[in-house]
# Entry
Amino acid sequence: MSVTTICSRKMGAGLRAVIWALALPAVMSGTAQAQTPADDPNPGGLTLTAGLHVPSVYLFRGILQESDPDLTFWPFFDVGAALYSGDGGLKSVGVNVGVWNSLHTGSSGGSLTGIHYEEDFYATLALGFGGGVTVSQTFTAYTSPNRFFRTVEEISFKVAQSSRMAPYGIIAFELDGQADGGANEGTYFEFGVGPSWPAGGSRTIAIPLKLGLSLNDYYEGPTGDEKFGFFDIGALYTVPFSGSKRYGSWSFHAGVDVFTFGETTKSFNKGDKTRVVGQAGITLTY
# Structure
């Protein structure tokens, strides 16, 4: 299905298939945990995170955003504030605000409409508890400067645990607008794990797995609401490359994801049952 057939509705946005699995856990841990001055050139209560990532194609929760992809760029910027740290039942309180962009030169961008396909604004409140458990709430406004889709407003809740397996669950409610081509705002659920291992020195490799489901009207198709949206298994290699941390901590990321789609997301992906997506980029944390 081409992008233009469903451009009147929101098709893309926020915890993008790879980037949020990569970027936000680092942001939230930087907000919730204080670093020592010896390790951190910015030991205050604010953490700044920025980056630029380049995917081979843009999928959002299994939904293809470009019928004819060319070049896609994801610049983003986040500010995290550590508001509280304690030893009781509530270990930490943090707030993050940020903006995420998707710039396209393919079918959903280019010279006629402008390359700025998507600009998302979000705010997150995160509460840290014992056992490495974090509960967060995020409000996101997904917008399209080049008017390929209408603005979507969403509120989501996430529970995650900081451990070797790094399990998490997300439930998201569309408040206004929607991600697919159906008629109703939907409710989305995602469960995943992100085990990681050292790969020599400070390098790491992670194997994230994600399952995306519709709890109500999220993956609407010709036969109604399809519950199974996608399953994703990936590999992510991270290499820190900054010597001195005077100008922040820099890292290079490269990865690949293999998606398997349900019937509705299959129709959004030109009838393909599976798709391989690659990505590379850099991230700065200060």
